[in-house]
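Suppose a colleague, Dr. K., hands you the sequence of a protein chain of 248 amino acids and asks what its three-dimensional shape might be. Before reaching for any lab equipment, you can write down a predicted structure in token form. Begin with the sequence itself:
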Amino acid sequence: MAGRELVVGGVHAVRTALARAPGDALELWLRRDRDHAAADALETTARGLGIAVQRVGGEALDKRYGDSHHQGVVLRRRAPATLDVPALLERLAGRPDPALLLILDGVQDPRNFGACLRAADGSGADAVVYPRDKSAPLGSVLAKAASGAVDSVGLVAVANLARAMSELAAAGIWITGTAHDAPGDLYAADFRAPAALVLGNEGSGLRRLTRERCDALVRIPMHGVVDSLNVATAAAVCLYEARRQRAA
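The predicted structure, expressed as tokens, is then:
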């Protein structure tokens, strides 16, 4: 990821980037014809960090971001840093709360991947683990969908997902995969111990080696005509079920 740049837009996403990854920030662009207290505060923060700030017209800002949904605030930045499995386990060591991880097996749509990160952040997951070469790139489209979660959730990019899952299992993390043909029900599973939830590619689901590395497989019960959920929606359902069990 070193050297790759992306842009993020919106007050929350930019504020999160400046707070959590100020070293990755390169340049802040603000809409000059809008009186915006939140944008002014971001300008003060950015200048305090030594980050260049430009005031530009709305059309120029839309062009730099790719659309108009940026609230008058756009940040050019480096791509977020990623972890490996040993670094993740070191981060989790000694924590009082059991680990909660999301594993994405080849999710290649950047909007889906970004929405999965947003669900991981919202549910308090510690990290998202994914194969480096078979996933959506950490670019501007993904960052836009993540709405700041590229900086608030650990990103663990691995060369071999099956091997990484074995390493996590050896560290005491129970791995549960999701599949439409699984014998178990999500709501009958126990996620109170250290857990990782695995979701597959939007079309083909979990790959064979990924399924084989799971300790259990569960399905999300479907009560309507549609037989499956979007991967990001499924991730949110699973992660919040784990969080609900832990809160109880």
